Amino acid sequence: MHMRSPDASSTASPTELQTAGESVSFNFKNTYARLPENFYSRVNPTPVAAPRLVKLNVELARSLALDPEELASPRGVEILAGNRVAEGSEPLALAYAGHQFGHFVPQLGDGRANLLGEVLGANAVRYDIQLKGSGPTRFSRRGDGRAALGPVLREYIVSEAMAALGVPTTRALAAVTTGERVFRETALPGAVLTRVAASHLRVGTFQYFAAQSDTEATRKLADFAIARHYPEIAQTQRPYKTFLGEVIARHAELVAQWMLLGFIHGVMNTDNTSISGETLDYGPCAFMEAYDPDKVFSSIDLQGRYAYGNQPHAAHWNLIRLAESLLPLFVQEEGNEESALASANEALATFGPRFETARRAGFRRKLGLMVDQDGDDALIEDLLGRMATNGADFTLTFRRLCDAAIAPEGDIGVRALFADPGSYDLWAAGWRRRLDQEFTSRQDRAATMRTANPLFIPRNHLVEAALDAAMGREDFKLFEELLDVVSRPYEDRPHLERYTTPAAPEQSVRQTFCGT
Ligand code: AMP
Ligand code: MG
């Protein structure tokens, strides 16, 4: 056995851990548990055979006023595995519905998760602490309520990478192995992820009550969501319309960020669409390497519904489902159905422009264009078109453009990514002419570009290698290293080249799996 103790540098030594903390203090609030009984099912996590902490997010713990030493203590690990209910916790499985690949399922719910409670972050935001993979609930349908170690570590790495990249996302606080097997196609080591989210409210949570025509519950849920995520709008004239508009705005910005990083969520069902505007439920997600707007990784996304280039459309579709669910509240707010519909449509119409503005601004930053000029859009689209035709690596192209922005000598690196380097040269000539009209110094421009163009993303083959080592040999070294690398995505760091290069053909990951 070769499991690392959690970040030994910043937690207690093993001997201290044995004796540390008779209690683990979360200071949980349970505001969701105060909502009516039909919002959830009260259920404790199901204990596991042999809990073992494989990773603790020390920094995140501290930012939530949680004591990493307490969490890493035997008692803390029991809590993180679901073997013990923490003081003040009222574990719940949340009820929700959802459209899965366009098909409505009136009841999904937390089939393998327990909300333990809510804690207050140092930023005064309230966060859910949730165990994922913690045993069956009333919502498990035919599932076992469990998670395999691979998908748990994948969510850990990718969600932490997204956070470091500056994308709103749920976070990973801890990963624990269970000492039990879960049975998928084969027997796999089981694990529990402790997830942190601004909330676990989803579009599907609203659909759950709307589908039952339970307008009072929909209102209670909306009021809860507003108080939690959008408190400033509670006193406005039409809070529900404003609420819809705010969720739409956050998702337009969120999906624009995904697009700017080459991130493909993979399963943008309405039950995976968060009301807080965070990236939620990392399943078959992946960062693409060669730029391809039609790129799909998920093995179950046969129609390409959630392909890279369809993500804005999919998000808008999901937000229409939210608007439909809120419609009865609009009718009450507006007095009649016609103006309610008009309000919903007005809010929904803001998605496209908001997304386009964010995407455009993002690509301009990525190309070092600070001054806004006619023709910039064409320059951006021209580059993307050439990248697609030439199979250029998305991340590296933009990162190496930071060097090319200083001097034409930097072109060598970018050219090497294009099947036909001449295609890049043609574009670069126009880009240089355009950069001549900028006012900042070349060095400043490159430095700014480096804050928009990461060097390190969790490349699929590296993620797979880390997961394979962890699952096959209980060796967490690659996982730890990759996590460290992607936690500082914008920094040049020596000796890490192998993390920057795209997969060789034989390493290339073509498909990802939901892992449920
Ligand atoms: P996901 O694909 O993880 O977003 O999950 C979709 C739905 O299936 C949610 O209601 C989950 O709670 C449920 N689910 C996924 N995996 C399991 C499992 N192993 N056991 C029980 N329910 C599950
Ligand atoms: Mg889900």
Write a structural description.
The two termini are 26 Å apart. It is built from 18 helices and 12 strands. Residues 1-21 have low confidence and may be disordered. Strands 2, 6, 7, 8, 9 and 10 form a 6-stranded antiparallel sheet that branches. The longest helix is centred in the middle third of the chain and has 24 residues, at 311-334. Among the domains are: 8-200, no CATH class; 204-358, no CATH class. It is α+β, with helices and mostly antiparallel strands and 516 residues long. Helix 5 (149-165) runs antiparallel to helix 17. Bound molecules: adenosine monophosphate (AMP) and magnesium ion (MG). Magnesium ion binds next to loops.
Mean of the pLDDT scores? 94
Helix content: 40-55%
E-strand count: 12
Could you tell me how far the N terminus lies from the C terminus, measured between alpha carbons in angstroms? 26 Å
Low-confidence stretches: 1-21
| H and E string | HEEHHHEEEEEEHEEHHHEEHHHHHHHHHH
Helix count? 18
Instruction: Tell me the strand percentage band.
Output: 5-15%
